Amino acid sequence: MAALTLPGRRTTRGAPTRAEFRVGGWARSIVLLCTAMYFLVPVVASARYALEGAHGTYTLAAVTALFHDPVLLQSLLTSVEISLGAAGITLVLLTPTSVWVNLRMPRLRRAMESLTLLPLVVPVVVVVLGIYGAFPTAVVASPVLLALEYVVLAMPYSYRAIDGGVQALDLHTLVDAGRSLGASWPETFRRVLVPNLRTSLLSAAFITIAYSLGEFAMANLLSFTTFPTELFQIGTEQVDEATAVSVFALVLTFAVLLGLSLLGGRRRAGGLRRGATLSVGGGDGIAAEVDAVLGHVDPGVPGIVHETREVP
Amino acid sequence: MATASGVLEAGSARPVGGGVPPRAGVRVELDQCERRFGEVAALDGFSLAIEPGELVALLGPSGCGKTTALRALAGLEQLDSGEVRIGGSDVTAVPPNRRGLGMVFQAYSLFPNMTALENVGFGLRLRKLVASERRRRAHDLLDLVGLGAQSGRFPHELSGGQQQRVALARALAVEPRVLLLDEPLSALDAKVRAQLRDEIRRIQLEMGITTLFVTHDQEEALSMADRVGVMASGRLQQVGSPDEVYERPVNAFVAEFVGSVSRVPATVGAGATVEVLGRSVPLPAGQAAFAPGSRVDVLLRPESFAVHADRDGLGLVVRRAFLGPVMHAVVALPGPVEIVATLPSSAAGEVVVGSAVRVEATGSPLFVTEPRPEAR
Q1: Are B158 and B116 in contact (CB under 8 A)?
Q2: Burial category of B315 from C-beta neighbours within 10 Å (exposed 0-12, middle 13-18, buried 19 and up)
Q3: CB A298 to CB B147 under 8 A?
Q4: pLDDT at B122
Q5: Which residues contact A228 (CB under 8 A, 6 or more apart)?
Q6: Between 3.40.50.720, 3.30.300.20, 3.10.50.30, 3.40.50.300, what CATH number should domain B4-252 receive?
Q7: Dist. CA B102–CA B220, nearest whole Å
Q8: B119 contacts on A by Cβ (under 8 Å)
Q9: How far is B191 from chain A (nearest CA, A)?
Q10: B186: confidence class by pLDDT, cuts 50, 70, 90
């Protein structure tokens, strides 16, 4: 681009010069560095504390001790099960709800938004009592109770994640297209909507899992042994081990979420090749350039022209 | 209903797109359809019959109910009353996924997560066609719409025109009994629109598929359709061949909506004539119901006027539009009346903006109607 080849001078179109780009780059780096430090310094400090041995040496003793504590491992397993259950219930309940509200009852959209915010203002104890009253004893006496509660408590965030994705789709057209091609409602939902809501659904699942894995107050209140409550218990006796567990849990959660996130983005990115050119509209005279870039010649479509943009 | 596998039989004719055989269309009927949205009647006793293999265009202003009629045929809109029949069977209560129709939408409707090939194969997948056959048929259809080389692209990698071609291929892939086109060209630029218009018509004729095409663009409707239905306020005002609708409108709405007309005050004369702009011209056939001496408005096409440069003329040229071989001149007449006249570009030298002209009616009016209340 011409704007990038004229250092030190503002172009006639007012585009930033190279010097301005450089300053902007530095500013971005500083902001990113500050943000990274804000999050990483406590984690690094915790890791250092957990790994510090006698006389300034470092040891993995605190970390390896984790894997020899059956109660801790069981609590971790319980928390993972609860969080996966909560995420599953969230997706099964909220996705059709959001789709239906947007498709058939758009007037209720505001009401749903308000309704899903209620867990933020209703005291946790009230939610607990409500769920206690609504489900049989077999359910409320098991960790399933926690999963149900986490669905409600994470709903202000998870519903927004799903609803944002649903609203970003041309829902009516996609549904009509699917139906007109012979898909039943469940098929339309499964084959058309869910794949296109993938990112939103993963976000909702992340939020619910993250919330469930870290929730302490309600699990402690209801005397369930989950990962956070067990961590708290260990912390009262062996601080270095508890710190090691915390760091380990943080890294593990981050790795899982990153993995899921990459998985979610893979399919869409797969459609594009680096350096490929996208057709995004009409405009005369650029078709040959597009075809040259893509290595395609389209003899069947003379006169079809494209505007182009580079895929980074 | 024809099955997807039906077209894949060995030895079937392949005159189109290297693998898409023609099929006999079915008759479609919408009978006394009613659909209300609150106080508004989107369909108000709407009836239409489409013959097998015919392309009917529904034309009308925004909100006239044409899309509702198409959606009712597709099963995407529930009727309050009335009946929809396809191939003689009542499908009013049949859900859209079981009507065996193909539809192309106004908005880009390709599934974003699928390639062009996968989009075209979607309906075939639902019909449990084996993968190899599905791919072959999808490729055939992409070839048919000229996008064989783009089969691996995702919708966001295709231009608007290409997306609509893929949508057309996708609609045809399921071997629909009826093809429904809901303003599929309205989002495209003029050049692509004209090209795709011809292509849709070519494919429709070659496949012999019964087609309902909804548009607000009269040029599209008149150039593509076997018959054109003009709608207003949920009712079909007239249905007929393009030249019939253009030349013999049944009411003032159709006359004014289709093509360009000028409304000029006139007086009914003796012997089925009408005095307009100082000349006596014949009343249109079937419009002799006005008593001699009645004041009326006549609707005249631009080509029904002769415009002569004349310093003593009562007309004043207020605008001109150059259209190649002909020119449109907008002339203000006393009344006040404004008319649009067509004149050959080669003869329009003296008819310039601001010049005085004499205007004559040279042909029979398109339609004669009561004067507008404010003119009485």
Answers
A1: yes
A2: buried
A3: yes
A4: 95
A5: A79, A213, A214, A215, A216, A219, A220
A6: 3.40.50.300
A7: 20
A8: none
A9: 8
A10: confident
Please answer yes or no on whether B126 and A183 come within 8 Å at the CB atom.
yes
CB A116 within 8 A of CB A93: no
| Alpha carbon of B278: minimum distance to chain A alpha carbons (Å) | 50
Q: Which of A196, A297, A303 is closest, CB to CB, to B112?
A: A196
Cα–Cα distance, A73 to A256 (Å, whole number): 17
Say whether residue B143 is in contact with chain A using an 8 A CB cutoff.
Answer: yes
DSSP-assigned letters across all residues of A32-92: HHHHHHHHHHHHHHHHHHHHB-GGG-B-SHHHHHHTT-HHHHHHHHHHHHHHHHHHHHHHH
**Mutation for testing the B interface, residue in A184, A266, A301 having most B CBs under 10 Å:** A301
Measured between alpha carbons, how far is B276 from B264 in angstroms, rounded to an integer?
7
Ordered mean pLDDT values, 10 residues apiece, chain A (312 residues):
43 65 83 92 85 78 78 89 95 96 93 92 83 81 88 94 94 94 94 93 91 88 88 82 80 77 58 33 31 32 32 32
Residue with tokens 């008593």: B291
pLDDT, tens digit (0-9, with 9 covering 90-100), for B4-39? 333 323 233 333 444 555 556 899 999 999 999 988
What are the extents of the domains in chain B? 4-252, 262-375
CB crowding A183-200: b at 16 or more within 10 Å, else e = bbeebbbebbbeebbbbb
CB B43 within 8 A of CB B211: no
Residues of A in Cβ contact (< 8 Å) with B171: 180-181
Q: In what order do the strands lie in the sheet with B89-90?
A: B40-50, B28-37, B81-86, B89-90
Identify whether the C-beta of residue A179 lies closer than 8 Å to the C-beta of residue A192: no
Ordered domains of chain A (ranges, CATH)? 21-59 (no CATH), 64-270 (1.10.3720.10), 277-310 (no CATH)
| Three-state DSSP class for residue B358 | strand
Would you state the pLDDT for residue A298?
32
